[in-house]
Amino acid sequence: MNPPYSLGIIGAGMYGKVLMRAFQTDPRARLTWVCSASQATTQEAAKAFNVPHATLDYREILADPTVDAVVIATPPYLHARILEDALAARKHVLVEKPLAAMPDDASRMVAAVASAPNLVVLEASCRHTRLQPKFAFIRDLIRSGKLGTVYHIHHHHLVRTTFIEWNRNGAWAMDKKLAGGGPFIDWGVYDLSFHLGLLDDVPKLRSLRSFTTNGLRDMSRLTPFSDIEQHGAAWMEFDTGLTYYYERGAGVHGETACETRLYGTKGGLRFEYPSWNTRTVEFFHDDGEPRREVLEVDVSGAPDDNVALAQHFLDCLDRKVEPMMTVARAARHLDILFRILAPENFHAPGA
């Protein structure tokens, strides 16, 4: 298989269009198919991105022997079946985040990928996180030993608005059965991708306490149904001794920056990890006196986060690199988030 790679886009909503635009920046990609549930949306996307083939049935894409890979950008409750069918058709896959809306679906996806070891499967929660310069900068600081042992992570981000207020076509994301959850699922996959990735995904969850609540705002003027959490927090303890305080909210009567604090035995960091926020990292340490340094991350030449994701997938197809976010790793992160939303179902390993 050689570039240009023939790609089929399954799901032409907000993120489907974002990824189509990103892939069109790279000559290694050729958009040949687009599919969504709506005839109007499908035809609109085909025209806007000059895609020659359009369908309402993704199986038509999988039946085309000239298609090398597919992008699954549907709502997450549809991901498992489409991924299984795509791998059975021997297609490489980029699957949008969150991986799944239900724990059983995530398990099915892990099993499907394990049964197709020669196919590239990338999950998209490395977007905004492991593929941007800030992640490598902070990870390298940790690996240098300047922080000593990282023993605590503190992260919070609270906003007053909800998903549907900036994507009016995303009513499905307000239904827990379809989306898996609210801000803990929508943004939690990014939060854990960044924070646990800094520690090479070594820590394993041992115990967890959490709360979640909704009903803080009346959403009936925006959507006929909403049962996702609007605010919550968790205290997590890991097998390495790491502790992690984690708070997320959308639709909260208050707000905080998307701020992370890392505490190590020799030094600490404070930063906002999204690439569009400040590029500075505060480094706190002691050389006989308490010190605070403001470090600047070099982002010159860094592509847009979505372009970086598309490029990384194409690099994986080129066999230059391994997927930055595997389905198995994404499923482990998602499992933590599902447990935050339903802590009564959590049983520590060996308990």
From TrEMBL:
Q: Which InterPro entries match?
A: Gfo/Idh/MocA-like_OxRdtase_N, Gfo/Idh/MocA_oxidrdct_glycsds, GFO_IDH_MocA-like_dom, NAD(P)-bd_dom_sf
EC number(s): the record gives: 1.1.99.28
Provide the Gfo/Idh/MocA-like oxidoreductase N-terminal domain boundaries: 7-121
**What Pfam families does the record point to?**
GFO_IDH_MocA, GFO_IDH_MocA_C3
Domain GFO/IDH/MocA-like oxidoreductase: where? 137-270
Known Gene3D superfamilies for this protein?
Dihydrodipicolinate Reductase, domain 2, NAD(P)-binding Rossmann-like Domain
Q: Which SUPFAM superfamilies match?
A: Glyceraldehyde-3-phosphate dehydrogenase-like, C-terminal domain, NAD(P)-binding Rossmann-fold domains
GO MF entry, a single one: nucleotide binding
What keywords were assigned to this record?
A: Oxidoreductase
What is the protein name given in its UniProt record? Glucose--fructose oxidoreductase
* Protein species of origin: mine drainage metagenome
